């Protein structure tokens, strides 16, 4: 049979035919039903096993509860992987340095940083650093961090560093560069070494090069070395001006300290103030050189090895100020203290001051603590109140309290110049001694008159001062002047009251000590006394009493004015009135005058008779001047005054 259709099936869908029949090829409904069936099968495959497991689990729980076991099993949680839960117990790190050194770091526990796996947080840290010389440094800390790439160890809280080399440190924070063997800290540190103790706010230790740097409020205490024997202790210098003595400790404050243990030097900079005994030193920079080692190697523990550093030399730079407890000060541009030989050299504008008003200045000062001497050279000027002494070389023996001032060399400055201010008490005894002798000699007028309050100026080649004896000796072409009165001699001995030395009295004694003022002058050898009008007198010695304001010449005395000449053995001059009296002392059997000494004693010999002065006057010369008038008056009264016609003669000019 042939049939037709007005519909077709397209894309799974049936098309209606013209007769309304469905063709055998239309399967869309069947396909939908099959899809639903497949989904159901899949669900059943998954749910059936799960259901079975659930049924079994429920059954098991029921059984456990029935038997009573369920209450004893805790609930289980999945572990969380975080950094706090990852830790290593007793970790150990070690490595080697290029120079042959080695390091070990151990801790109770270590926790990694998951953000940077090279970093570890450590607790209860211990470590050892060993340098190329096998010297070990042991360290401990409460906690810290370690980077195994950079080999940097950060330490915190209660850090202790103890080395075989004697170095011990206590810190609150430190950074250890293990490969470089460098330890740094930016927080307060206390370092104990064989040589002493250092406190500072910052520290850097370079173990390889043996360099140690301390910064900010550095306080250093250097130990003193005890003398080997009791005799050595007794003979050690006790002078208040000593500094750098190895036997005494030194306390030093500075802003920075750099120690180079290879060069054996410690450099203090920034407001340095060092105190040793009764002496304090202030300077912008001070260097301490030492023998041994600031932190000696472990071999120093041998009984035969030298332990610790012993101060060898201390130097300081401009300006240097040394201050004593009694108020004495010494300033200079540089200072060099030789602790071994107990000597010190100060150079450049040296000024030594002592209360209340003593002052000595020069270009260079050398102190020898063993000999207890001081040598001041250059343009030397010593002052006390209005008194002045000038020269080129001043040697002062502190033990004997003696000074020697000289002016070696040639030229205008090759003379010792002194200026003594008198206290005005001279002349108190007037001229009684001269008047008492008037009947036995011949009197002259006021040519030698001078002001007893006037200062005394003396020039010489050398000046020796014995402050214990209160005596000053001028030597070599001595030229002394007071007002219009001049004395020339080879030697002049000056007695004085007060103090002219640089002695180290106590502060209380210094305040009581008065400036030196002359009380007596004794001229010796070729003495010449000159007045302002040219009148002069010569003798073997002269005694100048500043209290009485008189001068006595003795020996072979000759007084002249122009051509007028008077000879005798003693001339007494009252410088308050200007009156002069010449006479002749008793003679010996040989006819030679028995010349009196400056102390009043006579030379040996048998006294037979009293001599008489002899004079030669020129009338025309006598008329001029006050002295001439007095001489003329004396000639007219020759006989009453003990003169014979043979001993007093007048000659026309």
Using brief descriptors, characterize the structure shown.
single chain, 653 residues, mainly beta, 38-stranded mixed sheet, two-stranded antiparallel ribbon, disordered N terminus, disordered C terminus
End-to-end distance, in Å? 208 Å
Percentage of helical residues? 10-25%
Strand count: 40
Assembly category: single chain
Q: Sheet with the most strands?
A: 38 strands, mixed
- Runs with pLDDT <50, length 5+? 1-25, 76-82, 232-240, 296-307, 425-439, 588-610, 622-628, 634-653
Task: Please count the helical segments.
Answer: 6
Q: Specify Rg, calculated over alpha carbons.
A: 54 Å
User: Which percent band covers the strand fraction?
Assistant: over 45%
The rough form would be described as rod-shaped
Structure explained in plain terms:
Helices cover 11% and strands 48% of the residues. The chain is rod-shaped and about 185 Å long. The N and C termini lie far apart (208 Å).
Write the layout of secondary structure elements.
Elements: H1 28-67, E1 88-89, E2 92-96, E3 102-106, E4 109-113, E5 116-130, E6 136-147, E7 152-163, E8 168-177, E9 182-185, E10 189-192, E11 196-200, E12 202-206, E13 211-222, H2 230-235, E14 250-260, E15 265-276, E16 279-292, E17 309-316, E18 320-324, E19 329-332, E20 334-338, E21 343-354, E22 358-368, E23 373-384, E24 387-397, E25 402-406, E26 416-420, H3 432-436, E27 442-444, E28 456-460, E29 462-466, E30 471-482, E31 485-497, H4 507-512, E32 517-530, E33 536-545, E34 550-561, E35 564-574, E36 580-583, E37 586-587, E38 609-610, E39 614-617, H5 619-622, H6 625-636, E40 648-650
